[in-house]
Specification:
alpha/beta, 8-stranded mixed beta sheet
Length: 728
Amino acid sequence: MDHPSQPSERHFDHCPWLFAAEATEEQRAAQREVQRAVGGDTVIGERCYVAESAAVFPDRLRLGDDSYIAAHAYVTGELDTGSHCTLNPFTTVRGNVVLGHGVRIGAHTSLLGFNHSMAPDRPVFRQPLTSRGIRVGDDVWIGSHVIVVDGVTIGGHCVIGAGAVVTRDLPAWSVAAGNPARVLRDRREVRGEGSAAPTDPAAPADPAASGTQQPDDSRTPTTHPTPHPAPSAVATGNPEHPVQVAGAAGAKAAAAAPGKRPDDSRTPTTHPTPHPAPSAVAADNLEHAVQVAGSAGAKAAAPGKRPDDSRTPTTHPTPHPAPGTVAAGNLEHALQVAGAAGAKAADLPGILPGGGRTSGTRPTSDAGPRSANLAAFADAARDQAAGLLDRCWNGERYVDRPGAGPTVRAHCDAVEIADLLLGAVPAHLSAEEHIGRLSGLQDPKSGLVPEFGEPLPVADGDGFIGEGAALYHVLCVGYALDLLGPGLPHPVQGVRDMTVHQLLVRLEALTWRTGAWGAGAWVDSFATAAHWNLRHDDGHGTPESLFGWLLTRADPWTGMWGSPSAEEGRLQVVNGYYRLTRGSFAQFGLPVPYPERVVDAVLDHARDARHFGPGRENACNVLDVAHPLWLCTQQLGRSADGYRSGEIRDWAERQLATVLPRWQNGRGFGFGQGAAGPGPEPGLQGTEMWLAIIWYLADLLGRSDELGYRPRGIHRPEPARQGITGLS
């Protein structure tokens, strides 16, 4: 084929594999501008190409090196790709989709990682969305006009024939075709000789296993079927017309045995969605919704779960701790067993940072040794609580850790820890003295609590403050006094007197796009102040307007407020979501909007190695995942069939196995391994937060009773009140 002497941008859009070798410097500069203009949380690798004519509107995009999105492709939702991945012209990728390395997608193919429900109680266009995601392994060739529906995992080294409709998982090395797609053979099979090639995936049977890209024309197939294929074998050529013979064979086989898979006689399964909450997102249309999967089979899976649930690993290796009793007074001995389990759990196969999965096994339901670990931890923590509080008492006031200065929060953390582990007040002062000191910190006129040695913060024009330690003191001092009995003695004046108009102006002006955590923290403080004010029988204030604004501003795709960034991913959004919902929906006992979308977004964030890689976890980041998952499961159901419950439990198991061995005898927990917050030195803040986190993780697993404690203060699981007016 003859090419123009200098290809135009339109030519590169349709033949992007030519760009790296033939583009002028001016065209390269223009391409950089196209990539910079892609919205959402986007990171594009080296030597990539994004066609200007493509409609790329992601919530999150990770485009690996040497990959491209060609002309008129349509990309929305969350897409993660490895290197050397190609979305050819008119490809559609929507919802939650993860591609491995060397994935080639033919023209007019659709990967639809979301769905709509089909409940008869509402019109089709009002059906809520669900998303279980699509996962594709390394070195996969998906031909033209293929449809892959939500919930499907395609193993590595697969080839999928043109026009196939993939409604079920495909094992690695499969050649598949038809509607519904079925496995025709294993690519490693040596055709016509009755023998098979070596099955070791590390020794691929063809040159395509390396995942290398054809430099001249990526339409050349990366797979090389055997030299003497049978009539139904894969037709080589280019991926715009792949596997034509195999596709016809698949269609014929499907017609010969309607309703059955010829390979295993099982009826292909549809993928019904879970029963969503009434507040779930209303969709615009059903064009990419129920998809072809609805007609692919007769049997329906249980709501919210595939019968084989092959996207979630079905087993994890169970640690085998040594038998023996645990001395509660020394957690180094108490957690020897848990530490060994944690070391193993950290290496368990499961969710990869990019969102992919490896095969593995899930922990068994044997509660004996695991129960002993949680109980032993709690017993040891209780036995050492008085000592770690002594460590942080300087003779006059509480400090977070030895050598630090006294803070208001340290005193509140001491009250929380003593209540949680000892059911008492810290012994350094009497209950009356604790109450007197904390109550005396509140300014009677403004209702604010400044930091030790700092002046009273100056209120903004609407009467309330926008930042600083006094915002958090509304929470920590209020709940410490709540535990001690009397609560805050004075209402928070700026919240009581704020008008609806002032509140709406403030909410619109918060840093949702650039600092969602700070915006969420402000809402947390405002809503908590409204909660304390209502205890004073104060009818003023605007909590109803706050909830109205929040409900109408929640993003229906994530259930959250704010925008992710390339630098931090979803960190600000998820952490801000925790603070916002803690003080508003959770504290007032009201349901959160779009809980399934929240679970999707939070689990995606929890795979981000920038914040959850080895040695990078801290108390804020883990709490800000654990609490939203816990909060949403209260609405979605906590059974084994609950929405993504297997993944939630797997994550909680891994976190517990990681954090329990980090307890330091007589010192408690450090905040985190990195430089954020107070750092790794054990102190009151880290100890108070991790004790609450451990309860939430254990409760996600149905094991919180083994701890023998339950947060009652700032991290309490129960609402502090039910609705706007009623006390719980």
